[in-house]
Amino acid sequence: MTMGTALVTGASSGIGAIYADRLAQRGYDLLLVARNAERLSGLAARISGDHGVRVETQPADLRTAEGIAGVTRHLMNGGGVTMLVNSAGVAPRGSFLGSELADLSELVDLNVVALHDLTAAAAQTFATRRNGAIINISSAVALMPEHFNASYVASKAFVLGMTQALAADLSACNVRLQAVLPGLTRTEIFDRAGISLNAIDPEMLMEAAELVDAALAGFDLGETVTIPSLPDVGLWEEMERARTTLAPHLSLRTAAARFGLRAG
């Protein structure tokens, strides 16, 4: 018996490839999605040989509507997909102001549009079936927007917000949601963005395997949001309490007295 099939995007390298290996260890069959068909095929053969699970591949460019549609069909056709891991993503090639608009749009297409559509397809399918799990890779920069490219920060904040909202929506449907917020992680994404790892403090750089292992441990603990490097989960819980404390004050009939609109 297996745990069903885990569909992993961005699976040809880095975080996605490690998720594929770790989920196979847990007994999941796999459907691996990425652009590089040759690398997918090699990974599939290795994982199948190592863990004895069924591994299928689907080369797809998730920056395109056609690529997204091909993957959503797997999620909505009533097949055996029981977990979606949205690991596909791209980093910016420089600062927001120094970037080409086409590059920023491509980043949003992959980090936001593709993730949204795949998550929506999986959420609706899993909710109807009343079983399943969705793991979305966000980023720690979603919590510190002042420190990075605005489009990338916004894309990862979208991932976090969508995951938290769906976790509430699907809490009664036996569907698990998790957002993973890595810090700097040693993957090929830096090479693609033209960033040298030598410029990064090694104390801030986590290995991808350790990141995935910590994220899956957080999943096992039932965390909706997992920050792999956070030593004290109470810091996150404190921030969440502060956020929810704001809720009763965010939509009222009158503007706050501090603006002086009704003085006198």
UniProtKB/TrEMBL annotation:
The keyword Signal does not apply. PROSITE patterns: ADH_SHORT. SUPFAM superfamilies: NAD(P)-binding Rossmann-fold domains (SSF51735). Residues 4-203 form the Ketoreductase domain. SMART domains: PKS_KR. InterPro entries: KR_dom (IPR057326), NAD(P)-bd_dom_sf (IPR036291), Sc_DH/Rdtase_CS (IPR020904), SDR_fam (IPR002347). One of its GO terms (cellular component) is membrane. Pfam families: adh_short. Keywords: Oxidoreductase. GO terms for molecular function: oxidoreductase activity. PANTHER family: DEHYDROGENASE/REDUCTASE SDR FAMILY MEMBER 7B (PTHR44196), SHORT-CHAIN DEHYDROGENASE-RELATED (PTHR44196:SF2). Belongs to the short-chain dehydrogenases/reductases (SDR) family. This is SDR family NAD(P)-dependent oxidoreductase.
